[in-house]
Amino acid sequence: MTLAVVSVAVSGCAHGHGDEVLDAFEANLAAHASATEALGKWCKARGIDPEGRIVVQFVRGADEAPPPALRETLGVGPDEPLGYRHVRLACGDVVLSQAHNWFVPSRLSPEMNRQLAETDVPFGKVAAGLAFTREPLSAARRGDPGCPAGAISTHRALLRLPDGRPLALVVECYTEANL
Fold first, then answer.
1. Residue 171, SS3?
2. What percent of the chain has pLDDT over 70?
3. 42 located within any domain
């Protein structure tokens, strides 16, 4: 689906029924490798923020246990350091998602690792220069037990580098604010 088609779908459904808006939201997510980019476009199209700026709010003290076989999924050995971020992605004051992100720091540049450790820049924006792709693993609407109450959609995806190596495993819980 091209971006132009997604934009038409988003604007055409912005005032429709909940399921139509959710369908448009899901189509927007599917059209982008980066959830950050998708949320920025959605935020702008919905009029939440005219520039569609997405910011990170760190979630402290509520870390998710790593999924089983995480190291195998990311293609790393037992001694390879892994990074983890638990964040809320917000547009203005509106929280659009909560995400868990396990990533391989050695597959990022030193500057990217610095930004992830020291700034509130979203992972997708920090790593955008790597031209990663998104491999959907699963998606579910409403009621995923790993998400906060009221989540409308959950996505699990593997972000891959152009050479096929995994960069990150993400679990994203999207809020009702998107509707």
1. strand
2. 89
3. no
DSSP state of 65: P
Residue with tokens 């109450």: 149
Q: Kindly report, residue by residue over 7-57, the tens digit of the pLDDT.
A: 333 333 333 456 899 999 999 989 988 888 999 999 999 999 999 999 999
Confirm whether 101 is domain-assigned.
yes
Amino acid occupying residue 137: L
How much is the pLDDT for 155? 93
Q: What is the dihedral of CA 35, 171, 113, 121, to 10 degrees?
A: 40
Whether 27 is in a domain gets the answer: no
Say whether 38 sits in a helix, a strand or coil: helix
Does residue 67 belong to any structural domain of this protein? Answer: yes
91 contacts 40 by C-beta, under 8 angstroms: yes
Number of domains in the chain: 1
Instruction: Tell me the three state secondary structure of residue 161.
Output: coil
Q: Residues with Cβ < 8 Å from 88, sequence gap 6 or more?
A: 56, 57, 59, 95, 97, 98, 99
Average pLDDT, the chain: 87
Please, what sign has the CA dihedral across residues 5, 178, 55, 134? negative
pLDDT(150) > 90: no
Domain boundaries, position 57: 53-178
- Give the domain CATH number at 90: 3.40.1410.10
